[in-house]
Amino acid sequence: MNTIMAMSGREYVSKVLSNLERDNPLEKEFHQAAKEILESLVCILDKHPEYMKLGILERIVEPERVFMFRVPWVDDNGIVRVNRGYRVQFNSAIGPYKGGLRFHPSVNLSIIKFLGFEQIFKNSLTGLPIGGGKGGANFDPKGKSDWEIMRFCQAFMAELYKYIGVDMDVPAGDIGVGGREIGYMYGQYKKLTRQYEPGVLTGKGLTFGGSLARKEATGYGLVYFVKEMLKSNKMSFDGQKVIVSGSGNVAIYAMEKATELGGKVIACSDSNGYVYDKNGINLQTVKRIKEVERKRISEYVKEHPEAEYHENMKDIWNIPCDIALPCATQNEIDINSAKALIKNGVKAVGEGANMPSTLEAIDAFLENKVLFAPAKASNAGGVGVSALEMSQNSMRMAWTFEEVDEKLKGIMKNIYEKSIISAEDCGCPGNLVVGANIAGFVKVADAMIGQGVV
């Protein structure tokens, strides 16, 4: 203990990160997320050595518990398939675990831990009483029939239901998990528990406890946050060329709100490639292709021959733009993509996906005075409205779209203001990475101290 108290904040962070990498080998995504957050906390650790004395960092990087389980299911040909499921309950200091479920072949323990770790601070920033968790499976919904997806979701929930509850752990959707999947899982949960508890999952259909504006929340929230960031720098979306990677819920509704605010979205993508439309992306076409027909974004050019389709979605960042909104997946903007954006005059980057920029890319944006909105702050709108869905379920009420949207605007504005103030207090004015990490951390750390060493 005396050795720790003699350390500076930087030495303490270095020690914790070194031990984390030793104890969690090969978990590169988790290491990256921990490094980005912990290195931002040096200032607050020097000001408040009690965080070091009480081992807050050692405790906060260790999940409270991790579940890993087998998910056997039967495909349409009668063949038994087996996937691996996960749920990481990371931190419950300020509320029940809250975080999405991701179904994607890339899912592994490292990815779920990085997502769950980020979720602690993101959820804290919302100001709502929710802790951090995450889960998922290495199941690929693409190319599967509705019946196969239903059977998988039921098999997944047959194990997961043991570990979740309205006051314990409340999952939601993420990549590969939308309203359809949440519905199938909730039906199975209800059957197994014999309880009607709609608050146990969020992102549900409106007919059984879902919230208006939940589908739009992450994309809208991202744009509301970036709007505040631009406004503070005497800028706006009006007349700006915008690139949005991805074409799922986050991307679609970020495009919708950016367009409403006067921006011109000129490109979007999926995992296969991207489309560039100099006249502006036709959002109704994208919505139909991705939400109704569930087809690839390449279909866009069949209806809009003036647009271009290109393979390799990462090349989307070579297109000159004023505002970049990465809404696809982690590490989609590497240092080369960041340099291309900077060279082409990008003014602002707002992260809609979880950790879409590498550490080197973030450093490049900050060094070149690009306005940068980090994911844990700028994409917190989704979990914010999920928490509002939980509130509506608890009260047996349903708010209007306008009521939820107004609350979302307030949440995003408050996150921006808290992040700006925290950055200023630590001598890093305008650095939202530092500000968001500190603002999210302090609330959780103080709650952990107040509850003793547990």
From TrEMBL:
One of its GO terms (molecular function) is glutamate dehydrogenase (NADP+) activity. Gene3D superfamilies: Glutamate Dehydrogenase, chain A, domain 3, Leucine Dehydrogenase, chain A, domain 1, NAD(P)-binding Rossmann-like Domain. SMART domains: ELFV_dehydrog. The keyword Protein biosynthesis does not apply. Residues 211-452 form the Glutamate/phenylalanine/leucine/valine/L-tryptophan dehydrogenase C-terminal domain. It comes from the Bacteria. The keyword Oxidoreductase applies. Signal peptide: none annotated. Keywords: Oxidoreductase. Belongs to the Glu/Leu/Phe/Val dehydrogenases family. Homohexamer. NCBIfam families: PRK09414.1 (NF006929). This is Glutamate dehydrogenase. It comes from Clostridium punense.
